[in-house]
Amino acid sequence: MKSSYVREPRQDCHPLSKTSHGIQRSRATLPNLQGRRSDMSHVSMHDIDQMSMEQMLRRLEELREELLQLRAQQALGGSSSNPGEFKQTRRSIARLLTSINSERKE
Predict the structure, then answer these.
(1) Domain limits, the chain
(2) What is the 3-state secondary structure (H, E, C) of the chain?
(3) pLDDT per residue as tens digits for the range 10-58
(4) Pairwise CA distance, residues 86 & 12, whole Å
(5) Which CATH class is domain 41-105?
(6) Which of 71, 73, 53, 66 has its CA nearest to residue 92?
(7) pTM, to two decimals
(8) Does residue 89 contact residue 66 with C-beta atoms inside 8 Å?
(9) I need a labelling partner for 68 at 20 to 30 A (CA). Which of 23, 79, 93, 101 fits?
C-alpha cells in the first residue's frame, strides 16, 4: 500500500533550490567554475599534449617546487588561500609524469 504522504521541504533550505536536502542539484543550477584558476598550478591533459618534452620537464620542476612550498606552509601551520591547491598540484604532477613516461616508452 502506497502512502500519500508528501514530504515538505525544510524551512532552512534555499528557496531557489530545486530539490530538498540530501539530493544533489542538477548541473544546470550549479555555478560554472571552469576556467577559474588562482595560479597556474593546474595543468590539463590538453595543455600537456601540446607541450614538448623540455617544456614538460621544466613545468614538472616548477610544480615540484610549488608542492614543496605548500608542504612547508602546511607544516608551519599557515592556512592556504586555496585549500584544494595541494591536491590540484599533486594531480598535475601525476598527469605530467604519466605523459612523460608514455613518451619515453614510444
Answers:
(1) 41-105
(2) CCCCCCCCCCCCCCCCCCCCCCCCCCHHHCCCCCCCCCCCCCCCHHHHHCCCHHHHHHHHHHHHHHHHHHHHHHHCCCCCCCCCHHHHHHHHHHHHHHHHHHHHHC
(3) 666 555 555 544 544 444 443 444 444 445 668 999 999 999 999 999 9
(4) 33
(5) mainly alpha
(6) 66
(7) 0.60
(8) yes
(9) 101
